[in-house]
Task: structure prediction
Amino acid sequence: MAEVHSACSISAFDGDVLRSAFKKSVIEERIPEDRWPAIASHLVRDLTGYEHVAPELLAWIMRK
Result:
């Protein structure tokens, strides 16, 4: 995994967990692509407790 930086630091392991959880949610719940940024942001905020989520982190989590 490429190193991911945001206002809040997360480990590579946590990044992989977030990305896997995001992909699983999108597939199982059939979430339309226009809602992906909100879902990814919510997952990161739940894990970190920080309000701001770096756009680069969201882009990496949502990458196909």
In short: The chain has one domain: 12-62. Residues 12-62 form one domain. The first helix runs from residue 12 to 29. The CA atoms of residues 4 and 57 lie 6 Å apart.
